[in-house]
Write a structure and sequence with these properties.
binds coenzyme A, alpha/beta
Amino acid sequence: MNNVFAVYGASGCGRSLMPVAVEQLQRLYGDDYDAKQLVFIDDALTVDTKVNGHVAMNYQRFIDLQPVNKSVLIAIANSQVRQQLADKLTNDGIALWHVQSERTLVMDSVCIDSGGALSPFVTLAANVTIGKCFHANLYSYVEHDCIIGDYVTFAPRVSCNGNIHIHDHAYIGAGAVIKQGTPDKPLIIGKGAIVGMGAVVTKDVPAGAVVIGNPARPLNK
Ligand SMILES: CC(C)(COP(=O)(O)OP(=O)(O)OC[C@H]1O[C@@H](n2cnc3c(N)ncnc32)[C@H](O)[C@@H]1OP(=O)(O)O)[C@@H](O)C(=O)NCCC(=O)NCCS
């Protein structure tokens, strides 16, 4: 076994992405695909177990697998944790694995950095630039001329229209719709901002803000 692949995280996010990872390896290796090449990493485990038919082990056990090329998809929704794990993997010389479904549509001039997770029915349209470890969940789309930073997360069915810039660590909730910007004035979602599920965003969202509703307004608790 020369290559081993892992989905880091066996909670909901990881278990939803594992079938996408399986499909990708089947595309890559065809009949040579070996399910033993693909495992879960779960730091809570003290002994190996099975999750949805896949071996699950802790990170140290994964590190100890020898001698293999290792690639890991980080399947953790929390973007700060995703960054910590990405830094750890990079320090340990392990590749950040990009996974996408065969039902993901990547159209034209799309540039995406390492470690992305593109679920089934995600569409990335034209002239789109995306940073590290982007998560786009089921049915989300990114339209033309968008720039998306590092560790950005889209829940299912996010509508990200043209000329939108989304800064690092922003989280966009399920079903949110973001109004298009223009080439000279893109709509901006600031660093670490949270857009609530179902929000309709019509204006820039400041860094760190939480917005909800239609039209989206700051959530004041
Ligand atoms: C916006 C959000 C981050 C706020 O979370 P929170 O800080 O824990 O907020 P709470 O649940 O305490 O709710 C605070 C208030 O806002 C309301 N609220 C929360 N989210 C809302 C939303 N998306 N739209 C409208 N109102 C919302 C609540 O009903 C509550 O109102 P109340 O004070 O009158 O009872 C969260 O509700 C959200 O939308 N997260 C995205 C979830 C998602 O998309 N998950 C996908 C998983 S794959």
